[in-house]
Amino acid sequence: MTGRATGRSAAPAVTGFVLAAALALGCEATHDTDGPETAMAPPRPQATVVIEPPQLRVGDVAEIEVAVVTPPEHALRPLVVPDDAVLGLVWVLAVEALPIDQQRGRWTHRTRLRLRAREVGSGTWPALTLELVGPEGERTLLATPPRPYEVVSVLPAFPDRLEPFPWRLPDAPAAVSPWLAAAGGAVATLALLGALALVRHRRRHAHRRAHGGLGPAAEVAMAPGSVAQRELAVAAAAIDTDWRSSADAISRTLRRYTAERWGFAIECRTTEELVGRTPPLAIARRWPAAFAWLRELDALRFRPDATDDAALRVRQLAEAAARWVAETTPCEGPR
Predict the structure, then answer these.
(1) DSSP line for 53-114
(2) If DSSP codes are grouped into helix, strand and coil, which group holds residue 121?
(3) 3 state SS of 151
(4) Cα within 13 Å of Cα(272), Cβ side
(5) What is the DSSP letter of 37?
């Protein structure tokens, strides 16, 4: 896992490390004692996950790679990424299958994942189950070992800083026709909403097949509004013992509910980055209140000099957020 806070890409170092590890796994050779030359037998399929270095800071964007060594003519099925509840401290931003390194006697398959650290703590990248398909259609399952990593705070690097960091504007874009930009944005938005709807439909269908179908009560329990209400209730119950963690949980719940309910992708964006974002029309009237709560939650949980009165305010925000979710949740019956 490679942090990006310095602004320099460390992908070549990670790639080199991955290749070295993969080749070390694949270089199991047998020798033909009857012949004058050494013959390399096809390798036994093996997989590994590379996290280098195993520490990054909150907010950093990082990369890890999954390397699989196989005999020639073997295919690797697309990687199934665990959901956020399993990953814990990081979000997965992108998954990219890299070109296969085809050498004589072995192939190396690599998949690169871009992550963003979201919470401080010690975590474990979970074991992954990979599926290989051989030249005759035979299937092989491989499991990668879990890998530990650590997410640390940026505060020790800035001990005297009390105010939030300023947000940075992107570089000025080249001159583009406003009509062309509007058309491109509309097409991209429609494509994103269509892809999101398709992913949700497939996930629901897969879950139903795995569990033999869901009844109406289970359908309601899985709906975004019901999940958000339960999470807000849990966060409110913990305010008296750790109001900062509760504020963090309320913020995460509001972001996730908004993303799932309206397709407004805000889970990985700071409140400063959201200032210039236009919400979907369906949420435009109600968004200012939720956005104000997100900013206030950030101001409370990131202030080292916050007083005990902050706990009372976090409780008020939890109650307001619960009412907001209830008011914006449609009738969540079976679909």
Answers:
(1) SSEEETT-EEEEEEEEEE-TT-EEPPP----HHHH-SEEEEEEEEPPPEEETTEEEEEEEEE
(2) strand
(3) strand
(4) 8
(5) S
- 133-152 burial: b if 16+ Cβ within 10 Å, else e: eeeeeeeeebebeebebbbb
Question: CA triplet 166, 307, 152: central angle to 5 degrees?
Answer: 50
Q: How far apart are CA 195 and CA 201, in angstroms?
A: 10
Long-range contacts, 129-132 (Cβ 8 Å, 24+): 129/80, 130/47, 130/66, 130/68, 130/76, 130/77, 130/79, 131/76, 131/77, 132/45, 132/68, 132/70, 132/74, 132/75, 132/76, 132/77
The C-alpha atoms of residue 163 and residue 263 are separated, in whole angstroms, by 32
Rounded CA separation 74/139 (Å):
10
Q: Tokens for 15, please give them.
A: 């790639």
> Position of tokens 């990953």?
87
| Selection from 209, 189, 216, 47 nearest residue 131 by Cα | 47
Residue 76: beta bridge partners? 132
Q: Residue 217, SS3?
A: helix
Burial class (CB in 10 A: 0-12, 13-18, 19+), 246: buried
CB 57 within 8 A of CB 121: no
pLDDT tens digits, 99-145: 999 888 889 999 988 888 888 888 888 888 889 888 888 888 988 88
Residues 6+ apart with CB under 8 A from 289: 320, 324
pLDDT in tens, 263-298: 888 888 888 888 878 888 888 898 999 999 998 888
- Cα dist. 242→143, 235, 311 in Å? 38, 9, 8
Residues with Cβ within 8 Å of 13's Cβ and at least 6 positions away in sequence, in order, are 2, 52
Type of residue at 2? T
3-state secondary structure of 133: strand
Tens of pLDDT, residue by residue over 12-71, are 444 454 445 544 544 544 444 444 444 556 678 888 888 766 788 887 788 888 999 999
